[in-house]
Design brief:
180 residues; mainly alpha; 73% helix; 0% strand; elongated
């Protein structure tokens, strides 16, 4: 295995690992929501349950983005794209990754880091009744952007490899259809 394959494999594994690890947040989120429904009818509503469920789901949604990109599950308009040859698809993807995706993600990370750091400096709290701290939750935004940017670099490299070799490197054969 050459260095470029090793780099893409490591990035792909980081995306898969982070997505699988964060997927476990669905269990406590569901438990919190079930608890809230039960306690609401048995006693009285809690102040914290909806906030915790929202924070857990938002974290799950953001961090799983890199794995979603790796698996090719983001929304794509395949009306034309699906009928193109593999090389044409890779050329279009490579151009889009290079000129749209990568600069956009760098800008997203930069702006969201400022968003997080300002929240950290202010020790910001969410504007809810419970008022939990917002800054740890806002760290998820630039972190997820960095993970997605890394996966985008891997996808760009795989597109370039496919263009050069004619062998499709974009989707690994052992990528799970359903993540377990």
């Amino acid at each position: 295995m050459n260095r470029i394959d090793l780099i893409t494999r490591v990035i792909d594994q980081i995306s898969l690992w982070s997505g699988k690890a964060i997927s476990w947040l669905i269990l406590p989120m569901a438990a919190v929501l079930v608890w809230e429904v039960f306690i609401r009818y048995a006693y009285r509503p809690t102040l914290w349950a909806v906030d915790m469920a929202t924070i857990m789901y938002g974290t799950h949604f953001f961090i799983a983005g890199a794995m979603t990109l790796y698996l090719g599950k983001h929304i794509r308009t395949d009306f034309f794209f699906g009928n193109w040859s593999m090389r044409t698809q890779c050329w279009v993807d490579a151009i889009c990754y290079l000129f749209l995706f990568l600069p956009g993600m760098v800008l997203f990370i930069w702006l969201s880091w400022d968003f997080f750091s300002e929240s950290w400096d202010l020790k910001e709290e969410l504007m809810t009744t419970w008022r939990p701290p917002a800054y740890p939750y806002k760290l998820v935004i630039p972190l997820s952007g960095a993970l997605i940017l890394l996966q985008g670099i891997s996808e760009l490299i795989k597109c370039i490899q496919t263009i050069m070799t004619g062998v499709d490197h974009r989707r690994r054969q052992d990528a799970p259809r359903e993540v377990t």
